[in-house]
Amino acid sequence: MTFAERYGPWAVVTGASDGIGLATAKLLAASGINLVLVARRYELLRQIAAELIAVHGIQTRVISADLARAEAADDVSAATQELDVGLAVLAAGFGDSRAFPDATLAGELDMIGVNVGAVTRLTHLFGGRLIERRRGGIVLFGSIVGWQGVPGQATYAATKAYVQSFAEGIHPEYAAHGVDVLCVAPGPVNSGFGARAGLNMDGATAPDLVARGALRALGRRATVIPGARGKVLTTSLRPLPRRIRSRVLGRVIAGMRDPGPVT
């Protein structure tokens, strides 16, 4: 099968308005797969959809959704019920760079809602549909900070640890039904994530490199670490005790933190 035959004719991409989600959507459109673009910013999604239609001649559907809301995943599934979805790319997520005692509880709970709750719900909802068709794929996004706790990103790192463990667990379960599951664990990525998290992303990996690495690994691996920086950090930290890895990455995050306040 070609990529489009295995993972098309429709793909759902969350976080499609920026960063890795947008880069992945562009690559999927270039392969001829129709797209359901999901993010909060409706007008921006409409502009992106119009560009992809003009360049690649695909079909699109735009869904504005705040995935921090528990019911948003059900809304996305219902809005795509009649489409033959072969791929779910769950790229929506956000982080923070404040110490946990300094962060707002509402913000931390929203982060868990998007990074964990929505990922779990959407995986179950679209995974069931993929099992019925006996083929397709699910792409989840962890992070190299998910290998251990990280001061300054305690909640974010914990959500990514969940995604990594979750993906590893369901990979063989879905494989038994012909469905590929991949966890992408990048290092720092130059996207809107940095601005929201209050981090300086100079020198970070480009989103399109992460997206290309993810789509190349889908169906071949359970986890991929795209980008040289992520590979180097992971390889160099792996032999160290977990507490030392936490301390080192805490210093890395502190060094990336913008001096201005995080909002």
UniProtKB/TrEMBL annotation:
GO terms for MF: oxidoreductase activity
Presence of the UniProt keyword Lipoprotein in the record: no
Residues forming coiled coils: none
Keywords: Oxidoreductase
Top-level taxon of the source organism: Bacteria
This protein's name: SDR family NAD(P)-dependent oxidoreductase
Localization (cell): Endoplasmic reticulum
Major subcellular site: endoplasmic reticulum
PANTHER family (alphabetical): RH59310P
Similarity comment text for this entry: Belongs to the short-chain dehydrogenases/reductases (SDR) family.
